[in-house]
Amino acid sequence: MGKTKPQSRVFKTAWFAKIARKAHIGDADLCLAISQVMRGQADDLGGGVFKKRLNDNRHRSIILAKGGRFWVYEYLFAKQDRDNIDDDELVAFRSLAAIYGKLTDQEIENLIANRKFLEVCNDC
Questions:
Q1: Could you report the average pLDDT of every consecutive run of 10 residues in the chain (124 residues)?
Q2: DSSP 37-82
Q3: pTM for the full model?
């Protein structure tokens, strides 16, 4: 009997959704990008933090994943506005990834119900 592939849910925060909309980055783009991240085509910043280029390399996204259950698009910035996140931000993103990794299924559903998390795609 073969192993079943774990389900990969992908979310964006409400803040990320607002900024992505202004940058004309749609959910289809995010789903494609997360499949590339899953194949190792992103910068692994450690501690469950990944940086992925989007929008023809004009924007950078920070994606959090800890515990292997889901991915969260957390932060987006234009390459023209800044080169990278700073060390303090990286520490904060790693801490947040650890917190996200401990969320229960019910807590995730509550975040969705309260529109703090918006589901981008499921089983990418």
A1: 58 97 95 93 96 94 90 96 94 97 95 96 70
A2: HHTT-SEEEETTEEEEEETTTTEEEEEE--SSSEEEEEEEEETTT-
A3: 0.90
